[in-house]
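Hi everyone,

Forwarding the result from last night's run.
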Amino acid sequence: MTPAAARPRAERRRAVEDLLRTAVDVWVASVGADGLPYLVPLSHHWDGGTVLLSTGADTRTARNLLANPVVRLAVGHTRDVCLIDGSVEILAMAELPDARGDAFAAHAGFDPRLLRSPYLWFRVTPQRIQAWREENEIEGRDLMVDGIWRDDEGVA
């Protein structure tokens, strides 16, 4: 089977933003002080600029992000994938504006603000976003570099 023609970056960006808006979960890869990678699925909310995550304050993911506030997120299928490398801002439950917490709860289907066990917010600011379907999209897969979206000529 011959793959479809490679999509322009603008089309891939729209697909990435649609996927982030509609998918409930993303894969979250973090690295702790021991240098070992850790991968878990977490619910998220995309506001068009940042990805909001939440997990228990005593989880390995939380400990990893507190020690090393960088993350790689993955969403989509292996033949239509989006990878996001980002910096992480860690917030207590009360530090996040209510409107963003409400949007997270509506999208994710649960509200960590209502749980008895302590949870934290993790606001991810994308620094690099890559997306591709097949080998023909590997070249030009960088849609965002250094936090700046790239156009079809590869420049911001």
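The chain has three helices and eight strands.

Cheers,
N.
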